[in-house]
Amino acid sequence: MPIVERKQRTLRKSVSISGIGVFTGQETTLTFHPSLADQGIVFQRTDLLNAPKIIASLDSVYSTPRCTIIGNKKASIQMVEHLLASLRAHEIDNVFIQVSGPEVPILDGSSKDFSQLIEETGIIELSEEKKIFSLQSPIFWSNEQVQIIAIPANEYRLSYTLHYPHCLGIGTQFHTFVLSQEEFVKEIASCRTFSIYEEVVPMMEKGFIKRGGLENAILVKENKVINPEGLRYPNEMARHKILDLIGDLSLIPISFLAHIIAIRSGHTSNNFFAKLLYNQIKMENF
């Protein structure tokens, strides 16, 4: 049975943020608007004819090439995971997001600016309730060296093991935490995406990444972090993987409690597991 945990939430007022897309190189403005209960998170591509809308849900996942892309027959938007992670951590259930381009801005490669924007804008509770479901039986997904497990818990905990044996500058890292607005801001929101220099340069030369750099990612070259300021946490990369996991799992159209244990997962495996987890919770509760 669902646990009636809290009231649904939305933003207090409209607010905008702008930045550059790391893949497209285009400057994009996001404008967030408060939304009514049960509307969910909806994007609108204002730069396209008839301004098509895209619902943020598992059914809308279009592709997962080094990021998560959602879309439909009319439009798509990529790099949604960092924004979705902040919305989930701050328990924003309903918001209408107008987007002036095909990609959510990378900003500094983390969710820090999105979380700060949400906190400065303010959050209001709606009269309608938000139901949260508990996972009742363990489930797992595995593909070669990638494993994701969910076990029953009375909290939403995420644990991640990162293993890069081919790059000593990353190596093996671990982090675990219980998701809450306060802990997300403290432990996860500021953790940046990362790349190995020798792997990402060929992608930049081919035009797949147009605006990647030290201002929006951790870069590891010859087994050393080359960002002048270094890392924000010793295990910042593992923490960022948790950030991505929160964003990808937020596309599950119900809220849930469970302990998610991920080993070497990425956007593609996160999406496969999200569908498995959603089906399991539906089977147990509906």
From TrEMBL:
Gene3D superfamilies: lpxc deacetylase, domain 1, lpxc deacetylase, domain 2
Catalytic activity: a UDP-3-O-[(3R)-3-hydroxyacyl]-N-acetyl-alpha-D-glucosamine + H2O = a UDP-3-O-[(3R)-3-hydroxyacyl]-alpha-D-glucosamine + acetate
MF terms in GO: UDP-3-O-acyl-N-acetylglucosamine deacetylase activity
Keyword Cell membrane on entry: no
Active site (catalytic residues): 267 (proton donor)
E.C. number(s) listed in UniProt: 3.5.1.108
Residues that hold Zn(2+) according to the record: 82, 240, 244
Superkingdom assignment: Bacteria
One Pfam family it belongs to: LpxC
Keywords for the protein's UniProt record, in alphabetical order: Hydrolase, Lipid A biosynthesis, Lipid biosynthesis, Lipid metabolism, Metal-binding, Zinc
Cofactor(s) essential for the protein: Zn(2+)
Family: Belongs to the LpxC family.
Function, as annotated: Catalyzes the hydrolysis of UDP-3-O-myristoyl-N-acetylglucosamine to form UDP-3-O-myristoylglucosamine and acetate, the committed step in lipid A biosynthesis.
PANTHER family attached to this UniProt entry: UDP-3-O-ACYL-N-ACETYLGLUCOSAMINE DEACETYLASE 1, MITOCHONDRIAL-RELATED
Protein name in the entry: UDP-3-O-acyl-N-acetylglucosamine deacetylase
Natural source organism: Candidatus Rhabdochlamydia oedothoracis
Species lineage: Bacteria, Pseudomonadati, Chlamydiota, Chlamydiia, Parachlamydiales
